[in-house]
Design a protein that fits this description.
Layout: H1 4-8, H2 23-37, H3 40-63, H4 76-86, E1 95-99, H5 104-115, E2 119-124, H6 132-144, E3 148-151, H7 157-166, E4 171-174, H8 188-208, E5 214-218, H9 244-263, E6 267-272, E7 275-276, H10 285-295, E8 298-303, E9 311-312, E10 315-316, H11 317-329, E11 336-337, E12 340-341, E13 347-352, E14 358-359, H12 360-371, E15 376-381, H13 396-402, H14 410-425
Parallel strand pairs: 1-2, 1-4, 2-3, 4-5, 5-6, 6-13, 7-10, 8-15
Antiparallel strand pairs: 9-14, 11-12
Subunit structure: Homodimer.
Membrane topology: Multi-pass membrane protein
Organism: Linum tenue
Length: 434
């Protein structure tokens, strides 16, 4: 009989077969056309603003004496833990540094990599954006599988340099970020610090490595912003962000393109579409709806203009993990060494979605059926906080490049989430669930 952990964590996908056709050349041409079609003035302005903001954010963060830079690391025992975690246990395997490893997507990707024999070392700052006890529980789960998660911040260049000194990482899976569209209105600086300054710090370490790793990182479907074309394709315009979060992710795409062009870093950006599932983020609607429905509290359901229901391309975590592993498996090599480029390197961007948008009221109805509790709904007009009325992914590029095919519909995925939620928190109808 499978253990509780095996029941709660989704199954591990296998390695994708690499398509050795000439398609990746077409992909490169496509993205060069995409970038050149956007206003040059906008891109340079965005890039300069991003670099300025990252510098100011980094300086203020260092000056503040943040606890993340005083975290304990280093020493013989620490290095031994890092090396043991990074050991590869399969032929042709990779050693991967996963940032944000104690997060939702990061923990699932780390476990999937480890289970198939890759070496994995994680890093996470365990911030308080949501209850850190959930992150600590994920870290404990990973530790049971031999995955060491370093408590540290990606803005700590000395820590990152030390990790690269101890392990010659072949790949970096960069999933650390300040998430959430609405929170940006409360704490905008955290988005600059994590999503821009942290990204630049990580890329600086990667490009300076003697053998540069291939970098796969989490962008977001939010970069499509006010785009009204459906479904969203990678070649669509992304110069109208609707939130600061979206703007930082768009800036990240420009910054990574620069490091690819100048230093030869192999870059793959993944535009995630509303990821959900077991061990998810408590700030996400499906998670908070579940909590409030069980506690008998009202939930707020937003509507767009003209009373149109909001819709999202909800993508189950198992499917996203498949896309992450597929992108790692097909990532071409970086071509630089010690900050010097020797030739062109791959630059790719992919949508990872489910291709089947579902309205929020339908999401609520599915949760009601699985929880066997009727929701108390408060329907209000969507505020101007950066949210968009709908998302819809075109995944044809990811399908061609590494066989990405999502297989979990919302009904099935939410059933698995509810099973995990009740097992983790219990049937807690009357008490607050933190």
């Amino acid at each position: 009989m499978p253990s509780l952990e095996e029941q709660l964590f989704p199954s591990t996908p296998g390695k994708f077969k690499i398509d050795r056709s000439s398609h990746h050349h077409a992909m490169n041409r496509q993205f060069h056309r995409c970038f050149s079609s956007t206003s040059t003035m906008f891109l340079w302005a965005l890039f300069l603003i991003a670099l300025t903001a990252s510098y100011l954010s980094f300086q203020s963060f260092v000056d503040s004496g943040s606890k993340y830079f005083t975290a304990s690391w280093g020493g013989v025992q620490w290095e031994k833990q890092v090396r043991n975690s990074a050991q590869i246990h399969r032929g042709g395997g990779m050693s991967v540094l996963v940032t944000g490893a104690a997060g939702f997507v990061g923990s699932h990707v780390s476990l999937a990599l480890k289970k198939r024999g890759d070496g994995v070392v994680g890093i996470d700052n365990f911030n308080h954006y949501y209850d850190p006890s959930l992150k600590k529980a994920r870290r404990s789960m990973l530790a049971e599988h031999g995955i060491f998660v370093v408590a540290g911040d990606i803005n700590d260049g000395k820590l990152l340099a030390k990790l690269f000194d101890v392990v010659g990482f072949t790949h970096v899976m960069h999933l650390a970020a300040q998430a959430g569209v609405r929170y940006a209105m409360e704490n905008p600086n955290s988005y600059i610090h994590s999503n821009i300054a942290g990204l630049v710090t990580l890329l600086e370490i990667c490009k300076s490595a003697e053998t540069q790793p291939a970098v796969v990182w989490a962008s977001s479907s939010s970069v499509y912003g006010l785009n009204e074309k459906s479904p969203f394709s990678e070649s669509d315009r992304t110069d109208q962000p609707a939130s600061l979060y979206a703007a930082t992710k768009k800036a990240g795409e420009e910054i990574t393109h620069t490091y690819n062009h100048i230093y030869g870093l192999s870059i793959t950006g993944l535009r995630f579409f509303t990821v959900y599932g077991p061990w998810g983020r408590p700030d996400m609607a499906y998670f908070s709806f579940t909590k409030n429905i069980l506690q008998g509290k009202p939930i707020t359901v937003y509507r767009g203009k003209n009373r149109v229901d909001l819709a999202r391309d909800f993508t189950y975590i198992d499917d996203v993990v498949k896309g992450c592993l597929g992108s790692l498996d097909t990532a071409g090599r970086s071509t630089g060494s010690g900050g010097k480029k020797t030739g062109p390197a791959p630059y790719r961007i992919f949508n990872l979605g489910n291709t089947s948008p579902v309205t929020v009221p339908t999401l609520v109805s599915i949760l009601e059926r699985h929880l066997k509790v009727k929701a108390k709904k408060k329907v209000v007009e969507m505020p101007g906080n950066g949210d968009v009325p709908f998302t819809h992914a075109n995944i044809s590029s990811a399908r061609r490049e590494f066989g990405y095919r999502p297989t979990t519909d919302l009904q099935t995925g939410l059933k698995k989430f509810v099973k995990w939620y009740l097992a983790y928190y219990g049937h807690n109808h009357g008490k607050a669930v933190n």
